[in-house]
Amino acid sequence: MTEIKIFCPATIANLNCGFDVMGLCLDGIGDEMIIRKVAQKGVRITKITGADLPLETEKNVAGVAALALYNDAIYRVSIEHGFEIEIHKKIKAGSGIGSSSASAAGAVFGINELLGKPFTKHELVFFAMKGEVVASGSEHADNVAPCILGGFTLVRGYNPLDVIKIESPSELYAVVLHPHIEVKTSDSRAVLSPTVSLKSAITQWGNLGGLIAGLYTKDYELIGRSLQDVIVEPARKHLIPNFDLVKNEALKNGALGAGISGAGPSIFALCKGETIANTIAKSMSDAYSDTGIACDIYISKVNSDGTKII
Amino acid sequence: MTEIKIFCPATIANLNCGFDVMGLCLDGIGDEMIIRKVAQKGVRITKITGADLPLETEKNVAGVAALALYNDAIYRVSIEHGFEIEIHKKIKAGSGIGSSSASAAGAVFGINELLGKPFTKHELVFFAMKGEVVASGSEHADNVAPCILGGFTLVRGYNPLDVIKIESPSELYAVVLHPHIEVKTSDSRAVLSPTVSLKSAITQWGNLGGLIAGLYTKDYELIGRSLQDVIVEPARKHLIPNFDLVKNEALKNGALGAGISGAGPSIFALCKGETIANTIAKSMSDAYSDTGIACDIYISKVNSDGTKII
User: Fold this and answer.
1) What is the CATH number of domain A3-166+305-309?
2) What are the distances in angstroms from CA B172 to CA A81, A262, B68, B210?
3) Over A148-206, what HEC string results?
């Protein structure tokens, strides 16, 4: 095997109550990458379509993640060759559904496959995080973890990195509305207070506990009751036109919960079953139409596989 | 059935990362209560042993909880009689292992049994909370929920009350060291800041997520890694002599985690299996001996039944 084609899925981070720790892998939208084993050592990005991103390995999310893995892999396997990476972006940058994470995840997943899997999937998360630094300035795993592992993931902590894949019921669907606006990461960070009331924090972790319990017990009602965010959403929602309207329409039409995907501007809803997902998608799209802002809508089952060869 | 005898177990609230939301039911220590159906309507406390507590129904935790249920039960069943309550305290007041909760839980559990169970166990938590107001000035469920339901419980929220019983592995043991000192509730509250850093809050809810995932998946290691408290323990531990020493000895001797039980002063440790629990109990007791303060040690399996007829 010298060349593989990979599907690198979009992801929803935070999920209301799980700010900076929870994430979810999607099926309906993702990038494609081709990873090729070549004689020349090192890692090179040879082609990028669908986005205007740097080809220089050290400036590219996928390149940096790939190099982190490549430079560590020599301690586990003998490497007498290098790798070329083609990136075919489908996930728009700045959409809030893990565009950079998909590239980082695809690169480390693909090279690991071609090296004969010296690393576990959990270990790949560590290398993919290195790529995230290029995109956001910090190592964080809330998108790369679900992108690589699939399903719902919890990043318990970083010291050391501790990522847990959380079981989930099989009929969960996500609907994502991506408004074509730019929310600067600096803005979405600036609106967050560095301190929160202990009372709000308790509400938040009560809900996170409920979400995880609901996922394990396949209790859709409990999942729905737990999808609340009293800390981040109230601060950030003003950055997204019609957020409340879109969220309320989703809830009225059967969503278990809805909120901001990652740092936004995408708005997501979770629900049970594809039929309800279709209804919710239409209601969210309708509710957004009077903004005059173009948007994409994605309907997706929860992707329990994560990044995979296609 | 006109009279029943009840075991009302002690409980550990908070469990490090789950401040105000998590609780755990013990087996090795608890009160006994006798509930008797009598002709005279209303609720009376007729006997209290083991503690100096008021016999007046309206001033007694068990009495207030019992009245709350009694006054609501008339909407579900015909009540042509009253109830007498005897309380035989074994759990010391102010120990931090749910002494008042045991009384409240026992009263509502017992009367509900003698009425033919008009209420579910989850509904009983609501009435028992009313009793907690007498003891602490606020309705809270983090002790009464595990006391009534057994096992580990999560109080997701109060509006409306939402209590979830969390599955747990069968070999979990708790060790509790109760130092014979008084930590005033006002003091243990005063040391808590009304605000916390967002960073600490994220660490805390990451750990709470890990704890719940670890309980469902019976992953003792994950449970152990998650039993951390970066918010409350650092503020409160100074109120308990030798806390760090006792905790460290517990961890050195095989505890998965250790921390402050409820608002203290009791110190608890969780571990896998009775043999390790015995070793930990000795190590904690030894570590406390140089304080010159008397203490009790309890070793207990997790009690998955909760309050029950004996």
Assistant:
1) 3.30.230.10
2) 50, 37, 34, 16
3) HHCCEEEEEEECCEEEEEECCCCCEEEEEEEECCCCCHHHHHHCCCCEEEHHHHHHHHH
On the question of pLDDT at B184 being above 90, the answer is: no
Q: Which distant-in-sequence residues (6+ apart) come within 8 Å of B113 by Cβ? A: B1, B4, B35, B309
- Sorted by where each begins, the domain ranges of chain A are 3-166+305-309, 172-301
DSSP string, B165-183: EEP--TTEEEEEEEES---
Contacts of A267 (CB under 8 A, 6+ apart): A176, A177, A179, A240, A243, A246, A247, A250, A258, A259, A260, A261, A284
Q: How far apart are CA B248 and CA B267, in angstroms?
A: 11
Distances (CA, A) of A143 to A25, A179, A299, B219: 8, 19, 18, 24
A172-301, CATH topology level: Alpha-Beta Plaits (3.30.70)
Residues 11-50 of chain B with CB under 8 A from chain A are: 17-22
Does B149 lie at the interface with A, CB-CB under 8 angstroms?
A: no
pLDDT digits (tens, 9 = 90+) for B228-241: 999 999 999 999 99
A207 part of contact set with chain B, CB < 8 Å: yes
- β-pair type (B267-272, A82-88): unpaired
Residues 261-300 of B with CB under 8 A from A: none
At B198, phi and psi to the nearest 5? -60, -40
Catalytic residue among B132, B233, B249, B307: B132
Residues in chain B closer than 8 A to A225 (CB atoms): 156-157, 162
pLDDT by 10s per residue, chain A, length 310: 799 999 999 999 999 999 999 999 999 899 999 999 999 999 999 999 999 999 999 999 999 999 999 999 989 998 989 999 999 999 999 999 999 999 999 999 999 999 999 999 999 999 999 999 888 888 899 999 999 999 999 999 999 999 999 999 999 999 999 999 988 877 888 999 999 999 999 999 999 999 999 999 999 999 999 999 999 999 999 999 999 999 999 999 999 999 999 999 999 999 999 999 999 999 999 999 989 999 999 999 999 999 999 9
Does A208 touch chain B if contact means CB atoms closer than 8 Å?
Answer: yes
DSSP3 helix / strand / coil % (chain A, rounded to 5):
40, 30, 30
Distance CA A84, CA A105 (A): 15
- Check B156 against A222: CB less than 8 A apart: yes
Mean pLDDT on B263-280: 97
Q: How many Å lie between the alpha carbon of B277 and the closest alpha carbon of chain A?
A: 26
Interval B220-229: pLDDT, tens: 999 999 999 9
Binary contact (A206, B155; C-beta < 8 A)? yes
What b/e string do you get for A25-54 counting C-beta neighbours within 10 Å, with b at 16 or more? bbbbbbbbbbbbbeeeeebbbeebeeeebe
Asked if residue B60 has pLDDT above 90, the reply is: yes
